[in-house]
Amino acid sequence: MDTDISLQHIWAGYPKTPVLEDINLSVKSQDFIGLIGPNGGGKTTLLKVLLGLITPQQGRVEILGRPVAQGRKYIGYVPQLLELDRNFPIQVKDVVNMGRLGKRKLFHRYNQKDREIVRRSLDQVGMSDLEDRPIGDLSGGERQRVYIARALASEPKILLLDEPTANVDSRIRNSIYELLQKLNKYMTIVMISHDIGAISSYVKTVGCLNRRLYYHNDKQITPRMIEQTYQCPVDLIAHSIPHRIFPEHNDEVAAIAHGYSGECNHD
Fold first, then answer.
1. Fold annotation for 3-257
2. The pTM is what?
């Protein structure tokens, strides 16, 4: 199977305080990898390295066998869901149109092909009936689907998502994960998540990132991975996990297993 993403000995961050330390990762075509880890552990920084927004201090990055500058056009990106000015006058289809900007020459109008791709992207996420609706009228879950459609409109081979289910309820969360599973049939997905239940139930492989990456090319989360990665309580909600992975003697970590929501920040 082809390798879509290759990271070799990546160091990135600040000169004297690297955020990422000696990261090595090979992501195969049509993999669905979930990345978990504490706040400030480097997860968003890793996505920025893949997008070419941060240049590593050391190491080599390849996207579909190409340098980042050539390969990033094959990546669709869904950032964290931010609060939106609900009075901002933009329709759903206009938001998704933004995903076509990188495919067109500067100042060129959208053509018929662009419009067809936008409609198809909205249909893929189940939002085609709302294409004329103001984006500010949508719920958080609906907006997140629109932002996924915007990423799909760029016709990516790889989809990167930064906490796509933050601030949505469990029903919407599960529907988004099910959507991503369908998309994974024809694209590679890398997703940051604080939801251990999703990591164990929906993804194919798991990586734990806290400056260093602990990755074993399967979706089992072992006690050792947790101990190596989490040095303090984090905002994780564990649900529907078939087995206990947290040592009982550690009150802080055990609280996470029972649905505790705490925070840690290493920034």
1. Rossmann fold (3.40.50)
2. 0.82
